[in-house]
Design goal:
Chains A, B: Spermidine binds at residues 62, 86, 155-158. The structure is a homodimer of 275-residue chains. The first copy, chain A, is α/β, with parallel strands linked by helices and 275 residues long. The first copy, chain A, is built from 9 helices and 12 strands. Chain A has helices spanning 58-72, 88-93, 109-118, 120-123, 138-144, 169-178, 196-209, 257-262, 268-271; strands at residues 3-8, 13-27, 32-38, 42-47, 50-54, 78-83, 101-106, 131-135, 149-155, 179-188, 212-219, 227-234.
Chain lengths: 275, 275
């Protein structure tokens, strides 16, 4: 018998992956959580029927969320990750020696628990002494914070379930208050093929709040369309004018200092979404 | 009843697309040809069980094959397309006013016939007076040509069936002879996630023949991994040092003059394949 996991990424298109076994399945307080072992991509975390991360291609998303803002900020000391309970973004954040503290606020403790169990190469970084893990509502955390963080990274699911309010303008206003005066934030903002309106809307909202707003992309095979967007809002530092001397060496599999700039060169149809 | 087209892109991973109907299916002299009408991507040409092109995302591949070499060459007059019977690359080639003649050598006349019938926005350009369509073996055509073309584009299927010999070093040697003294060629060279060895091998072969060898990528949602590579071999002109004044305006949906350079900034794991 062959088992295949099939995900409808839209009502009309999807991916399918041969699996060895289902490792865990549970309806948590917030969402449906599935951990499956696939043949092509290794262990795969699925939330509400959407691939969140896989052992094989996780490095793209996690590196690109973390390193673009962290190399843009001249001295990031305190970093907040909203969501990201699998720990992958935190792992990348810790590669920057300037970071003294990395706070993770994940609403669903089960994501952390099962990532530690089944995705140890991703979640292992959560044990680091510089990391403060809080199982809490990221939206509320942001609402209470003021002038506190150098860099904030929003590593949410797609705007379904608990993540809906993480795509609202009020949330970005809260992020602006939670950041220090030269702070910078990044959010994953879905794909430009099937979610054109979302990409446009977030960019337009962020642009009303932050003086510097930028969109960049990366290739993630298990995400819809294979092309993912990230939106940056920055109070002072522009990711496109980083001094080259600032790029210290870190070990990566996707991010390079050349890509740091090149990833902002958008395909024309994507550039048109944020005009 | 719901109909879905599912393609195993590897033995362990694939895509699935909801379809309205099968428009045509035929075993030609060379390959299995299917034309299906999908809901998400419009009409889709499938050869030997692999998506070749779709109405929705075809522009990426066709623009990126054509415009990167054509803007690199200072005065491309005679262009050869090997394969590409759907006509999409030819359509893009004709956007360059310097081009006096575009020769298409497609081995399978049925691909041309059914592309004209079911993909008219792609294949329509084949009727242009500057185009010379030849139903013939591209490998043999190259073997006979000498000092004839400014730019050659290899728009083949993956290395299965009739396309196998289009990935051999002898073919690239033939291309070098078929090109003029400042000629340039590009070939689609599959994806770097599931076909690592192929990407490495082609680059290494081309590098032994051409003084300038470059790899670039583009995002194509219906192709395996969503990330596609293209290999350039050039006798004289480097795509990375094109004078900015040379970029005349053309209408595109993916290619931009910024992407012309940015598409050569490779993810680290891809750059490692061609070291």
């Amino acid at each position: 018998m062959e088992l295949w996991y099939t995900e409808k990424q839209t009502e009309r298109f999807g991916i399918t992956a041969k699996i060895k076994q289902t490792l865990h399945t549970e309806q948590t307080e917030f969402q449906k959580l599935d951990m499956i072992e696939t043949e092509e991509f290794g262990n795969m975390l699925v939330l509400d029927g959407m691939v969140m991360t896989t052992e094989k291609d996780e490095f793209v998303y996690h590196e690109m969320v973390a390193h673009v803002p962290l190399f843009t900020h001249p001295n990031p000391k305190h970093v907040l990750v909203v969501g990201g309970g699998d720990g992958g973004v935190i792992r990348e954040v810790l590669k920057h020696p300037s970071v003294e503290k990395a706070t993770l606020v994940e609403i669903d403790g089960k994501v952390i628990e099962y990532s530690k169990k089944y995705l140890p190469t991703i979640a292992g970084a959560l044990e680091d002494s510089r990391v403060d893990v809080q199982v809490d509502d990221g939206f509320m955390h942001i609402a209470k914070a003021e002038n506190q963080y150098d860099v904030i990274m929003v590593d949410s699911t797609e705007p379904v379930g608990p993540a809906v309010k993480l795509f609202e303008k009020g949330f970005y206003e809260g992020i602006s208050r939670a950041l220090k005066e030269d702070g910078i934030f990044v959010a994953q903002t879905d794909n430009p093929w099937f979610q054109k309106e979302l990409v446009s809307k977030v960019h337009s909202d962020v642009k009303e709040i932050f003086p510097i707003t930028r969109l960049y992309t990366a290739n993630i095979p298990t995400y819809p369309s294979g092309l993912w967007t990230f939106t940056i809002g920055s109070k002072k530092h522009d990711p496109l004018t980083v001094e080259k001397s600032r790029f210290h060496d870190i070990e990566t599999k996707y991010y390079t200092k050349e890509l740091h700039t090149a990833c902002f060169a958008l395909p024309k149809f994507v550039a048109d979404l944020i005009k």
